[in-house]
Each structure stands twice: as C-alpha cells, then as structure tokens.
Design brief:
With 249 residues, the chain is mostly helical. It has three domains: 60 residues; 64 residues, no CATH class; 102 residues, no CATH class. The chain has 15 helices and no strands.
C-alpha cells in the first residue's frame, strides 16, 4: 500500500489531485471510512505535508489504535525536534511490544527520541538493543545508536558498530560524523576533527551549518594549549559531545 501511495504521489508531485486519486481508488474497493482517512494521512505524510498528517493522526486518535500511525506521529515530531512531545506518545506503548519487531527501523529512532527527551542512556538503549539483536543495522541506526553505546560503556558493541560503519556506511556523512563524535570523546582529536569534516558533505549541510565555516582554516594537529576555540553547544547530543571533547582538552 505504501509503495502504491509513493508512486502515485511521485506522479502527481504531491498535489491534492494525487491524494484524491488514491481515495477514489480505495472507495471503489469499498474501504471503510477509517481506512480512507489513514490513506489521506499517508498521502499527506509522503507528499511532504507532515503537519497535516500529524494533525489528522491526533484528531482521529489513530496513534492509540494503529501502530503505523503511532510510528508516523513520532517521526513527524522527531523530524521537527519536538522530542518531549514525541516521547509522550512513545510512552503510550511498552518497549517490549511485539509490534516493534515489524518496525525495527523505527526502534532506532525511538531510542534517540527517548535520549533527547531526557529518559537517560540506559533507558534509550532498551530501544536500540532490539534492532541490534535482530541484525537490523541501518545508516540511521548506527548514526543514532553508536555514540550512545559508547556513552554507556558497551565497548564491544561500539567496536562491532564501528566495523559496520567502515564496511557498510563509509560513504554516509551522518554515520561518519557519529564516528567523529566518539573519536573526539575518546580524546583522539586529529582523527575526530578529520572525520567531523564529513558533516560538510551532507546534502542539507547549508541548512544547518553556517556557510562561512566551509572555507575557514581547519585544525591540523597544532598544540591546543593557549589557543582560542569557538564551538557550538546545542540540544543535539552529537554537537554537545564535540563541544565537551574540546572543553576537556
């Protein structure tokens, strides 16, 4: 169903006509009104109208009755950095819910939501552990989970995930940036800063990084003592890690 919706939205470029086409097809198959509303939500979500998708999920209470709607609601808030609100929804379902087995990719995001909402490292790892156990290692998973396992001191898992990154995700700037955060936290500054340069290769880099920084001189391993450093400290865990590493030096 999702694949059909994505295909139709791609053809219609996410315009309203595409949504109505999907709805008309569902009605012709005698779908229930509730399921048609869910189709509209999927269409809005995949068509880039995530605010409308989220509002309708909450309006109809689908996050309480449908696990996929629950996932979409959490993901909309995750993408908007509204982690406290996302965690409230996340907490409405137990971590050991069997439905997570069908949504292992989401469990990696759920762990990040929990951590960012202040639930603590060990609590967030309960979400991260499930994809790890099932071997569902994706780019998004290693990006979110790798620094957290390091923070928790689970070094064997850190080594295993590092191998995954170098083997399977070495061309992904977000995964490499996760490596950078851990190297900086370990005190391996030359390698950490070298890896952190990957952030500038991200397609959306200019939306999050001051463009003036792109052509500025980089640290080449000179002595840090007596120097002046400028760094950014934000709510994002990985940025905080980099800043902390510099301060500890």
């Amino acid at each position: 169903m999702k694949a059909s919706i994505k295909s139709l939205l791609e053809k219609s470029k996410g315009e309203g006509a595409g949504i109505e086409l999907i709805v008309d097809r569902a009605r012709s198959c005698c779908w229930a009104d509730e399921e048609i509303e869910k189709l509209r939500i999927y269409a809005h979500y995949y068509g880039g109208r995530v605010d409308i998708a989220y509002a309708n999920i909450i309006k109809f209470g689908f996050e309480k009755t449908d696990f996929e709607m629950f996932v979409l609601a959490c993901m909309v808030l995750y993408l908007d950095n509204q982690f406290d609100q996302a965690f409230e929804i996340l907490n409405t379902r137990p971590i050991d819910s069997p439905e997570y087995l069908d949504h292992l990719d989401f469990a990696g995001f759920a762990g990040y939501i929990a951590l960012s909402a202040g639930a603590g490292v060990e609590y967030s790892l309960r979400y991260f552990d499930l994809p790890l156990k099932m071997g569902a290692i994706t780019t998004a998973y290693v990006t979110n989970a790798y620094p957290v396992y390091f923070e928790a001191g689970r070094l064997q898992i850190v080594e295993d995930l590092r191998r995954h990154i170098h083997t399977d995700f070495r061309d992904d700037p977000q995964a490499i940036y996760a490596l950078a955060c851990v190297e900086l936290a370990r005190g391996y500054f030359p390698e950490g800063f070298r890896l952190a340069e990957s952030r500038y290769d991200h397609p959306d880099a200019t939306q999050f990084i001051n463009g003036d920084l792109f052509d500025k001189p980089r640290w080449k391993g000179e002595a840090l003592r007596g120097g002046v450093f400028w760094y950014m400290l934000s709510k994002d865990w990985e940025i905080w890690s980099c800043a902390r590493a510099i301060c500890q030096r």
